[in-house]
Every structure is written in structure tokens, then in C-alpha cells.
Amino acid sequence: MAMWKWLGFGAQATSSEFDSLSEIEKALAGLGTTRARYAACFAYILTRSARADHLVSDAETAEMGRLVAVHTGLSVDQAAVAVRLAAAQARRSGGTDDFVITREFDRLATHEQKVALVDCLFAVSSVDASIVTIEDNEIRRIANELKIEHPEYIAVRSRHLENLEVLRRRQP
User: For the chain, which domains are there?
Assistant: First the structure.
């Protein structure tokens, strides 16, 4: 057991010991702790689908900022800062924080907010009118982590069928 504790597995890490959202929350300090954390998680998770294909375009970044503003009530400037910081944290962590942050969003958000986030993930990936398979797979992974049932996920995904590359290849 001592070795597990030494490795950091002996007890649940507290937010002060490990918190990859703290920089975003500090930038959103005037919002209150819960609202800032929700917005930080939302922005970070949006970067997951955007970076799935290892290329985050300016159009995707702009769309993420717009969606963060619309869905969290942040100003456009605050949303842009949240997205910029979330993308930087995702680059620093190399994706190792993805599950932890998505689990935190799952704890904070209502079911409707989770479904709306999944729709936003498709919207970000659709910016270039093409959702490649790796992006589609990442969105499905996130939906699973948010405990979105498969039929509900399919209903959201169906709103973006015209942009799914996997379906375009099958059409004559």
C-alpha cells in the first residue's frame, strides 16, 4: 500500500493537489467557483474533438469560443480566453487530463447540458463541413464518459450526418 500512496494512488487527489482547470478558473474569477469550473470543463472538452485529428483550425477555435459563450453565458472575450487556456492545458497534458475533466463535467452538468455539449462537439468538428472518423470516435468516447445513452447519442449525431466523411465515401 505504501508504494501506491507514494505513487499518488493511496487517496483521492484533492483539487489543490491536481487541478488542470485552475488557470482557466482564475481567468474567470468573477463568475463564482461553480460557474467558472463548469465553463472551464465545457471549453476543455470542446478542444477534445477539435484536436482529435491533430489539427485545430482557426475556424474551429472561433466556433469553440462562440459555443462557450452561448452555452455558458460568458462574454465573447471571456469565452475566447477560456478556449485559449483550455487548448494550452490540453497541449501541456497531452490528453492525460481528458477523462478527469470530462468526469468533472459529468458531475457538474445536467443531462440536458451534457447532450448539448455533445451536439457542440459535432458542431466544432463540422466547421470544415467534414467530420472525419477519428473525430466521430472521440465524440462517441466523450458521450460514453458523460453517460449519454446510445439512442440519444445517435439522435444528436443524426443532425450532422451530411458532414460525416464515413457516409460520404459510401455514396455513389
Answer: 20-168 (1.10.3680.10)
